[in-house]
Amino acid sequence: MKRTGPTDVQVRKLMRFLRKASRTYNVEIWRDIAERLNAPRRRRVEVNVSRIQRYTKAGDIVVVPGKVLGAGSIDHPVTVAALSFSQKAVEKIRSAGGECISIAELVVKVPRGSNVKILG
């Protein structure tokens, strides 16, 4: 049987980092995100800015275990951590007062994972 899942070295390192953080801080959210990243690339989630607008309020922290795309608009500041962002998505999130960070940066910023929403 052929192995599926990520072959990208950076994604595999991120998954190991998330599993280790899950064990270190005894938090299941990082293990859940690592398992979602373990899916093949064609099954990874893509979330539009409009979905982030719909399911968040000002000041929320969101994790997307995939890519954030720029369709739609957002009018409140949120912190979005994702595997990757399109250029339009970064522009729209930052113009609303939010910030775009990597998933590893979020683990360092909020190690316990409290008040973090998973979209996707």
Q: What does this protein structure show overall?
A:
Strands 1, 2, 3, 4 and 5 form a 5-stranded parallel sheet that branches. This protein has one domain: Ribosomal Protein L15, Chain: K, domain 2. Helix 4 links the parallel strand 3 and strand 4. Helix 1 (9-25) runs antiparallel to helix 2. The chain has 120 residues and is α/β, with parallel strands linked by helices. The protein has helices at residues 9-25, 28-37, 49-55, 87-95, 103-109, and strands spanning 45-48, 61-69, 79-85, 99-102, 116-118. The chain contains 5 helices and 5 strands; from the N terminus they run ααβαββαβαβ.
Give the biggest sheet.
5 strands, parallel
Order of helices and strands: HHEHEEHEHE
State the shape.
globular
What is the CA-based Rg, rounded? 14 Å
Oligomer: single chain
**CATH first level:** Alpha Beta
Fold-level CATH name? Ribosomal Protein L15, Chain: K, domain 2
Helical coverage, percent range? 40-55%
First and last CA, distance: 28 Å
Give the integer mean of the pLDDT values: 94
Ranges with pLDDT <50 over ≥5 residues? none
Supply the helix-strand structural class. alpha/beta
